[in-house]
Amino acid sequence: MSEKDLKTSQDLTVVVQTLLQQMQDKFQTMSDQIIGRIDEMSTRIDDLEKNISDLMTQAGVDELEEEIKVSETSGTA
């Protein structure tokens, strides 16, 4: 292998390593963004579930469901 070929090979190795590092950095950034969005979505879903539960309680849905269960077990439904 000539000195010129060796230099070209080393240059190519550096370029490939740099490209791979850039790809890894980009992948890590995207992974972090996705995980952050999933966490945010989870929090929003939890808040939504709590709000729905609060609205059902305010509307008396829980009490209505309990009355239906009681009347079904006593056979008056």
TrEMBL record:
Family: Belongs to the HSBP1 family.
Keywords, comma-separated and alphabetical: Coiled coil, Nucleus
Primary role: Negative regulator of the heat shock response. Negatively affects HSF1 DNA-binding activity. May have a role in the suppression of the activation of the stress response during the aging process.
Keyword Signal in annotation: no
Coiled coil: 31-58
Single Gene Ontology BP annotation: cellular heat acclimation
Compartment annotation: Nucleus
Subunit field text: Homohexamer. Associates with heptad repeats of HSF1 trimers and probably also HSF1 monomers, and with HSP70. Association with HSF1 trimers and HSP70 coincides with attenuation of heat shock response and the conversion of HSF1 trimer to monomer.
Keyword field contains Nuclease: no
Protein name stated in the entry: Heat shock factor-binding protein 1
